[in-house]
């Protein structure tokens, strides 16, 4: 019996050891970035598009909707008149939040400054969650709770998965198939010649 268990253990370790060796350094970061792209890239970009002002330079002046989404209680206080909100710091927060919603997901997907972009997205999701709960006052069913057995509680469950997905490239890197790896290789070659 112990010989059979030993054989099964060697087979188990051999198979999964081979899979780990074959995927080491490239697969996990790439897979996390591709899943992020397929599930969340368009979500964040569509959200960011609602925040742009009118015209070609709309990216320089966020819409009233951007202020209402990011600063809901303040917008209520000023009767949704953005001219009554100081640019520094509030207008700047809305402007940078809008740009961040475009730029950070793109950086994660293409694998450029991936660790910093992933951390930025995690912070963004944290702020977004805070604004949804405190600013927009979503109900407890929508918020949900960890270990509640209800996978339809959008905020707690979905955003925990989003953050975990971003922890992979933040902690493990983007993988070999990324701009970070390409630029790192170029930099190392360049350093050898100087």
UniProtKB/TrEMBL annotation:
GO terms for cellular component: membrane. Keywords: Membrane, Transmembrane, Transmembrane helix. It is found in: Membrane. The keyword Transmembrane helix applies. It comes from the Bacteria. Signal peptide: none annotated. The chain crosses the membrane at residues 27-45, 52-70, 90-112, 119-138, 160-183. Its main location: membrane. Pfam families: DoxX (PF07681). InterPro entries: DoxX. It is a multi-pass membrane protein. This is Putative oxidoreductase.
């Amino acid at each position: 019996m112990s010989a059979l268990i030993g054989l099964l253990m060697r087979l188990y370790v051999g198979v999964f050891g081979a899979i780990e060796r074959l995927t080491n350094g490239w697969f996990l970061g790439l897979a996390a970035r591709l899943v992020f792209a397929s599930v969340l890239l368009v979500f964040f970009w569509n959200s960011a598009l609602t925040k742009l002002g009118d015209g070609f330079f709309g990216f320089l002046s966020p819409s009233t909707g951007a202020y209402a989404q990011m600063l809901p209680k303040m917008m209520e206080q000023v009767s949704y008149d953005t001219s009554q909100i100081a640019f520094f710091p509030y207008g700047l927060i809305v402007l940078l939040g809008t740009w961040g919603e475009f730029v950070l997901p793109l950086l994660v997907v293409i694998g450029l400054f991936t660790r910093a972009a992933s951390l930025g997205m995690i912070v963004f999701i944290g702020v977004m969650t805070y604004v949804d709960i405190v600013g927009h006052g979503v109900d407890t069913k929508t918020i949900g709770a960890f270990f509640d057995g209800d996978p339809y509680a959008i905020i707690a469950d979905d955003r925990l998965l989003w953050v975990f997905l971003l922890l992979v490239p933040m902690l493990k890197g983007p993988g070999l198939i990324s701009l970070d790896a390409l630029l790192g290789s170029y930099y190392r070659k360049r350093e050898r010649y100087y």
